[in-house]
Amino acid sequence: LKLSVVVSITDHTSKNVPSESTENYSLGSGIVLVSRNATLPDTRNVFCSQPYPNTSILEEFSDGWSECFIREDIKKRILSVPGFPQRIQRPVSRAYRIGDSPGKDKGMFATRMIREGELVLDERPLMVVSSVGPLCPYTSSASDSKTMTDDYAQRFRESVWNIAYSRMPLQNRRAFDELYNSHEHDDAGRVAGIVRTCRYAITGYIGPNVCSGICKDGSRINHSCCPNLRNSWCAESFSFRFYAVRDIREGKSSR
To answer: Alpha-carbon distance 53 to 128, whole Å?
Structure first.
């Protein structure tokens, strides 16, 4: 599978990434490494860490960071947000636990009374992926069909999203692996299946739904047509904030 993407070197976790002083060169498979400050076309897909942590040790960057596969123009919008990156907000006290949810894998449950309007969680995603742009190069041949093209796009997504996954610190990879995958039987691939199952839309950079984020705890919140939590994307802190839309009693599932 040939990939047509560029890696922007913010790498501190990838095994095959040189120092930032290294000049552009090819790693094979169509992946080209460039310096973190290189000028790229806006439509070029890049791998990057946001916010850039300057460390490979998660504990030394307390709010964490997200491994991203996004378009260059989205990356520019992220970095141009005034005040970026702000610290994430800490709730007054932890108000939830992650536990078994019958028929729904894991879920989030209130450990005390949560009041309407209260901030329950402010969390940077483990991974952010672009939902727009030239995600997959189109292959033209006499035997092309929509099925073949969709299959190729599916394999492409799994390949590039797996690179973003491999760039995560070990603790984040383990957390990602524990998330639910509802696409185990449709050949989506393990990483792509978890992304498709657990992602939240990110808005505010170019238009609606330009990116999606996958969270360690936030992605444990089960879907509901009558939710008791709402989430909003905070561009300044690069995080999802989850607020109670009504009182939630202790022991109740957050959804």
So the answer is: 16
Once rounded to an integer, what is the mean pLDDT over residues 65-74? 91
> What is the pLDDT at residue 33?
61
Alpha carbon distances (Å) from 227 to 12, 132, 142, 159, 198: 38, 27, 48, 34, 16
* CA–CA distances in Å: residue 42 to residues 35, 39, 75, 138, 213: 16, 9, 9, 19, 21
DSSP 106-159: EEEEESS-B-TT-EEEEE--SEEEESSS--SPPP--TT--HHHHHHHHHHHHHH
Nearest CA to 50 among 219, 173, 209, 213?
213
State how far the Cα of 146 lies from the Cα of 153, in Å rounded to an integer. Answer: 10
Token pair belonging to 208: 């609606």
What tokens were used for 95?
Answer: 């108000």
Does a cis peptide bond (omega within 30 degrees of 0) precede residue 41?
Answer: no
Dihedral sign computed on CA atoms, order 75, 177, 195, 152: positive
Q: Give kind and range of the element (H or E) at residue 222.
A: none
Concatenating the DSSP letter of every residue in 19-43 gives -TTSPPEE-STTEEEE-TT----TT
In percent, the amount of the chain with pLDDT more than 70 equals 76
- What does the pLDDT average to over 89-93? 91
Beta-bridged to residue 69, according to DSSP, are 47, 129
